[in-house]
Design brief:
174 residues, alpha/beta, Double Stranded RNA Binding Domain, two-stranded antiparallel sheet, 4 helices, 8 strands
């Protein structure tokens, strides 16, 4: 249950911090031939997040794909699948107030201060699969920090998906 909550938070709060995006693709594929898409239900059903967040992600993907002139179809050229992960990172900050500037300053001497903080980092994968060959042809990965307080989950997920799909088709990012 803890992993589920962390994952839920990961997807919902990625807009509060920077999003790192990585994409990869099969360089032998002509992406201009893809005009339609559908969701790969077996892959999406395996994702362990709430149905509400799944719908938010899929709605954001629908919007981005339509902006790229790709339409949903019962006979698609591409199958879209998603996956998510989350992990907690621990940060330790050592602050020693015994030094000031370039040298030692006895008037600034004080105790060492160590602070420990944690941050959950969530990852969303968007996979595009050739419907005929069933081969992965493009993958986008977005990674970002999480805060458990969110006001507009739809907007945050939309920004996250937009950042990932900005790089589809390959060579289209500015």
């Amino acid at each position: 249950m803890k992993n589920f909550l962390l994952l839920l938070l990961a997807i919902s709060m990625l807009g509060c911090s920077s999003i790192s995006v990585f994409t990869d693709h099969d360089s032998g594929v002509d992406f201009s031939k893809y005009k339609t898409f559908a969701y790969f239900k077996p892959g999406i059903d395996k994702v362990e997040i709430s149905d509400l967040d799944k719908r938010r992600i899929l709605k954001a993907i629908d919007l981005q794909m339509s902006q790229k002139s790709l339409m949903k179809s019962d006979m698609p050229d591409l199958l879209v699948s998603i996956n998510t992960t989350a992990k907690e990172k621990v940060y330790v900050n050592n602050m020693n107030y015994g030094f000031w500037g370039w040298g030692w300053n006895p008037w600034m001497w004080g105790p060492n201060q160590n602070t420990v903080s944690t941050r959950t980092e969530g990852v969303l994968y968007i996979d595009l699969i050739d419907a005929k060959t069933k081969q992965l042809v493009w993958q986008g990965k977005g990674k970002g920090g999480i805060s458990e307080y969110t006001k507009n989950r739809d907007e945050r997920i939309g920004v996250f998906v937009s950042e990932i799909l900005k790089n589809y088709p390959p060579g289209s990012a500015l």
